[in-house]
């Protein structure tokens, strides 16, 4: 996906009705020794980092349970859409654990430190409506009979992104992600570097021409 130029948006969904991702298999985990657990969690953390580093926008379609590592997977995505009936939570403390695949870092960056601490300390599960009210998800929708309401809303969101200039969207994602990790002056410099890379693109010229000619732009991603 990282190197496929035809891919402009990635939507993460589950093939299991009622479950986005239920997290680690604790029965499997119980059979591991301490070293194996450490290696497993490190690999999981690396996977989430790879997802977060995808150059194109990513959307998690949460149509059911997103617990523990499942919510960490959703947090690694850029955008999240949830069914109102979905259940989300970093429940690790209820099992004698703590989030180990990015949850302690991505949740506070998403909802703020106070709410993140409350959710992690209590291991509380929240529904899609509550998640939307605290900014954990971008949109919440009533579940449908097929059980894929969040996925359908995620597709609608993806279709809003698809017509836009692909390289500009990629640079926008890069500027936001890198800029959020530094002070604002450094962030402005990062934005400037990303903007400079976009200036010579054919899509920028096409966008300007389409505006002058009062027609929809035809972007090619170059």
TrEMBL record:
One of its GO terms (molecular function) is enoyl-CoA hydratase activity. It holds the Pfam family ECH_1. Gene3D superfamilies: 2-enoyl-CoA Hydratase, Chain A, domain 1 (3.90.226.10), Lyase 2-enoyl-coa Hydratase, Chain A, domain 2 (1.10.12.10). It comes from the Eukaryota. GO terms for cellular component: mitochondrion. PROSITE patterns: ENOYL_COA_HYDRATASE. The keyword Lyase applies. One of its GO terms (biological process) is fatty acid beta-oxidation. InterPro entries: ClpP/crotonase-like_dom_sf, Enoyl-CoA_hyd/isom_CS, Enoyl-CoA_hydra/iso, Enoyl-CoA_hydra_C. Keywords: Lyase. Belongs to the enoyl-CoA hydratase/isomerase family. This is ECHD2 protein. It comes from Cochlearius cochlearius. The lineage of its organism: Eukaryota, Metazoa, Chordata, Craniata, Vertebrata. The gene is Echdc2.
């Amino acid at each position: 996906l990282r190197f496929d130029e035809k891919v402009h948006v990635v939507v993460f969904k589950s093939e299991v009705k009622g479950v986005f991702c239920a997290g680690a298999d604790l029965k499997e985990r119980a059979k591991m020794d301490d070293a194996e657990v450490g290696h497993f969690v490190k690999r999981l953390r690396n996977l989430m980092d790879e997802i977060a580093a995808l150059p194109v926008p990513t959307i998690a379609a949460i149509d059911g349970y997103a617990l523990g590592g499942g919510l960490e997977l959703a947090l690694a995505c850029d955008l999240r859409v949830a069914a109102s009936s979905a259940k989300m939570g970093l429940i690790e403390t209820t099992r004698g654990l703590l989030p180990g695949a990015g949850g302690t870092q991505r949740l506070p960056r998403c909802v703020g430190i106070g709410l993140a601490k409350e959710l992690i300390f209590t291991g509380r599960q929240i529904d899609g409506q509550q998640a939307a009210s605290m900014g954990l998800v971008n949109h919440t929708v009533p579940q449908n009979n097929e059980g894929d309401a969040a996925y359908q809303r995620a597709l609608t969101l993806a279709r809003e992104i698809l017509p836009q200039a692909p390289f500009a969207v990629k640079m926008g994602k890069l500027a936001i992600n890198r800029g959020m990790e530094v002070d604002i002056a450094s962030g402005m410099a990062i934005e400037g570097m990303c903007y400079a890379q976009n200036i010579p693109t054919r899509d920028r010229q096409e966008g300007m021409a389409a505006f002058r000619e009062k027609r929809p732009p035809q972007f090619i991603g170059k």
